[in-house]
Amino acid sequence: MRNFISVKELSKDEIIEVLDVAKRLDNTDSKERMKILDGKIMTSIFFEPSTRTRLSFTSAAYKMGCKELGFDNPDKSSIMKGESLRDTIIMVSAYSDVIVMRHNIDGAARFAEEVTDCPIINAGDGSNEHPSQTLLDLYTLREELGSIENKKVAFVGDTKYGRTVHSLAKALKRFNGEFYFVSPDIIQIPDYILKELDKSQIKYKKLNNYEEILKDVDCLYMTRIQKERFDDIQEFEKVKHAFNISRATIEGKCKDDMIIMHPLPRVDEINIDLDDTKYAKYFVQARNGVPTRMAMLAIASGVIELTSKRKEKPYPIVENKEMLCTNSKCVTHFEKTKNKVMKRSYGDFCYYCNREIGK
Ligand code: CP
Fold this sequence. Notes:
binds phosphoric acid mono(formamide)ester, about 15% strand, alpha/beta
């Protein structure tokens, strides 16, 4: 059994193995596949809205004979009576073989694994990480481009709050990716992510527009401006229409085999006139959530075990009662955590939400 909290915990070989398992499960006879998780229960608890992640986990579970419990409306759960996340996780664990959780608080998934032995899959925690999206993104890149090594990816949109961007950049650094972070200044990629890339000597550039780099990139990874994460709605109003790509802005200006991806939902950043072009891969990408999440459920519940060498923890993790994470949306401000700190060579970082402490 194992958790999927952050892509950081997966070695390069393990990532490739997960993608291989996903491919194999996608090609498995449907009757045989129904036996894989027969008798297991997946509980999905979604504290934030979702279409793709929740439904593709449900679809993945059903295709492997797994039953599902859960809620997608926390207003109907005992959270509304004041129950803590800690107690909720302890109780849900008693009914489940694997828990899939989406939460609005940064670090909620890391905290959840601290209070249970039941496998936890992080289905997105605030603006922190979204590892199941990353695995399906990598699956899509490999299927569509033939490889995920040495790819030039432009992340366009909200690179500050976009958890899919944070997780995918962390994963692609293992494959020697080269990145462009294309955002207005107020929603640019945070320094705590860039420090990780710097440590690995990954090449990247921060830009305000994509025109000058369009001809160079293998993948244009579009993202929605994350309205729900802004403290000041006036700031959102300034940037909400920052990007809108269309046939007119793409055709003839990019590589012939460039692909456009988007974790979805989109608002107005991709014009629908691109949907039936060869570049558009966002709907097939969403469909790839099913095999990828089948693999994650089978691995998390221990039915399939990864054999690749695991990633070693390169830095100590220590408990620090005095630690006060400066991210007001970190789980350490909402729950009784163990207040752990990652002691990296380039600074101290919150174990739960990954932010640099004191910054
Ligand atoms: N990509 C993604 O997480 O979509 P949902 O919010 O619909 O799950």
